[in-house]
Amino acid sequence: LLISSLLRWDIDVYGISAHYLYNWNELLFPAGLLQFPVFASTMPRWMVYGGMGSIFGEEVINSVDEYGGRFDRMGQPNDWWTDQTKQDYTQRKTCVSDYWDGFSIRYNGREIAIQGSNVAVNIIAETGGLRQA
């Protein structure tokens, strides 16, 4: 952990969106995550652990995904993926992308096609986070 990173907080503490900062190698979990619907003292423990675990897992996976793989443990640019890793990831990402290309959402009376290539990296991290939880 870099001392200079302790002097700043780039997200609202009451927010509910966790972040991974590649160039700082930091996982940020704002206090807003410790409120409903992710957390409540009346929720069963398994639900709280699963919800928090999936969020933590997603951010950890972001730290080593196709973007995180471009930075070392100190947050410095360093492409540490092997060529084989890149090839395998691209193959799997294409599979996820092709799958999501088949979906659409209805918004304001319009049907909008999901572009799998725009959501694949996030879907991979979210799915991995759920799996780890």
List the helices and strands and how they pair.
Elements: E1 19-21, E2 26-28, H1 45-62, H2 83-100, E3 104-107, E4 110-113, H3 116-132
Antiparallel strand pairs: 1-2, 3-4
Helix pairs in contact: 1-3, 2-3
Give a short summary of the structure:
This protein is of the alpha+beta class and 133 residues long.
Amount of helix:
25-40%
List SSEs in N-to-C order.
Answer: EEHHEEH
Q: How many strands, which pairing sense, and closed or not: the largest β-sheet?
A: 2 strands, antiparallel
- Trace the largest sheet across and list its strands: 1-2
> What would the average pLDDT be, to the nearest integer?
88
Task: Provide structural commentary.
This protein has 133 residues and is an alpha+beta fold. It is 40% helix and 11% strand. The chain has 3 helices and 4 strands. The chain has a two-stranded antiparallel ribbon with strand order 1-2. α1 (45-62) packs across α3 and α2 crosses α3 (116-132). The radius of gyration is 17 Å and the shape is globular. The chain starts with 18 loop residues before the first strand and ends with a helix. The model has no long low-confidence stretch (mean pLDDT 88).
Please supply descriptive tags for the structure shown above.
133 residues; alpha+beta; 4 strands; 11% strand; two-stranded antiparallel ribbon; two-stranded antiparallel sheet
